[in-house]
Design goal:
306 residues, mainly beta, lipopolysaccharide transport protein A fold, 8% helix, elongated
Length: 306
């Protein structure tokens, strides 16, 4: 019994120090350099002895170079957020410090974000995760989908490669109060770059924004957002429509440029650049603006330009 309890600890110590084969009390494969263990755990530690990651599997086939795992759970312990990766199968390259996950891959962030995909590559040395498969990222009232992603494990900075769609869902009670944009859908060919630290998102190529009362087209669009916590907002922002949310935050400004086209009812505007400011709730057009107005009521108080 004592030996069985010591086996996981012995495995962790051996794999963290050298790629030598670990002894265990399970049946070995035909190749004497390989072995199979149950309830496998591998951990990594920082210089001061603090654990910064671990990999757990229901079973593992171990060779000198790689570890093939089943029913994987991997944790990353950051300064602000913890990250959990789960998958059905995976292959950890002990020499390169890289892991490839397959089937039902889920990345869960302690702060609330969640990403799902079919496969994922984790680079321990460079602290990145990536995939070429379809991905879905859910954070608060925002659902982002696309094909291909490159990111830090915490998803604080992420780039979605192509076929991007961002659904910003209305907040509870928004429709009944008659405030906000309602549901907002932003699509683009990609890439989409998201930086949660800088609170920005950049959409590239054939950007299209659809709200309940207008459609905006542009080549590129930057979205700047601030904290959704009302106590963190200056007083002049406290009365902003509750629906102007992005990535769980209040929209501060939207800048669209390159072949900008805004359709509102039967009216259409064209410009090189358009800037939406949430404080004034107006759109400023610049760079040869052109308006095709069929109904003055639809554009009243909405646009200014030069």
């Amino acid at each position: 019994m004592i030996f069985e309890k010591l086996v996981p600890l012995i495995l962790i110590l051996i794999f963290c120090v050298s790629p030598a084969r670990a002894a265990d009390n399970t049946a070995q494969t035909q190749n004497d350099s390989d072995q199979q263990v149950q309830d496998f755990t591998l951990s990594g530690y920082a210089d001061k002895g603090k654990r910064n990651w671990d990999i757990k599997g229901k079973s593992a086939d171990i060779s000198a170079q790689s570890i093939k795992l089943n029913n994987i759970t991997s944790n990353f312990y950051g300064e602000s957020d913890n990250v959990t990766l789960t998958a059905d199968t995976g292959d950890y390259n002990r020499i390169a410090g890289k892991m490839h996950l397959e089937k039902n891959v889920v990345v869960t962030i302690s702060s609330g974000a969640k990403m799902t995909t079919n496969s994922l590559d984790w680079d321990k040395q460079n602290k990145t995760i990536s995939t070429e498969d379809k991905v879905k990222i859910e954070k608060e009232n925002v659902v982002t989908t696309g094909k291909g992603v490159f990111s830090r494990p915490e998803l604080n900075q992420a780039s979605l490669t192509k076929d991007v769609s961002v659904d910003i869902l209305p907040l509870p009670g928004e429709s009944s109060k008659g405030k906000g944009f309602g549901k907002v859908v932003i699509t683009c060919d990609g890439p989409l770059q998201i930086d949660y630290h800088k609170k920005t998102a950049t959409f590239n190529k054939n950007v299209k924004v659809v709200t309940k009362d207008m459609v905006i087209h542009s080549d590129i669009m930057d979205v700047y957002f601030s904290s959704s916590d009302k106590k963190d907002l200056p007083k002049k922002l406290e009365n902003i429509a509750e629906g102007s949310m992005f990535m769980g935050s209040q929209i501060d400004k939207i800048r669209a440029w390159g072949n900008v086209k805004i359709v509102r009812g039967s009216n259409v505007s064209y410009s090189d650049e358009a800037i939406y400011n949430s404080v004034d709730n107006k759109i400023i057009l610049s760079g040869r603006p052109k308006l095709e107005i069929a109904s003055v009521e639809d554009f009243q108080g909405a646009l200014t330009g030069n």
